Amino acid sequence: MCRAVLESEQGQTTAVGINNGIVYLMAIPYILVAGAGYLVYRNFFRQKNN
């Protein structure tokens, strides 16, 4: 979106939505990598104990 539109809006709801979207886009890769790491960790120790 154009910065001028985001800055000129009265309620700033669009700007808040854009900022939330950016935070989600930044966080999702870390969450996915952490989840994959947990699965590998869990499977590694499950096989080691059996």
What sequence of helices (H) and strands (E) makes up the elements? HH
The number of distinct structural domains comes to: 1
What characteristic shape results from the CA principal axes?
A: rod-shaped
| Radius of gyration from the alpha-carbon trace, in angstroms | 20 Å
The residue ranges in which pLDDT falls below 50 over 5 or more consecutive positions are: none
Number of helices: 2
**End-to-end separation:** 55 Å
Helical fraction: over 70%
Structural class: mainly alpha
> Can you count the beta strands?
0
Strand fraction band? Answer: under 5%
Summarize the structure.
The protein is mainly α.
How would you characterize this protein structure?
- The longest helix is centred in the middle third of the chain and has 37 residues.
- Helices cover about 85% and strands about 0% of the residues.
- The chain is built from 2 helices and no strands.
- By secondary structure, the protein is mainly α.
- It has one domain.
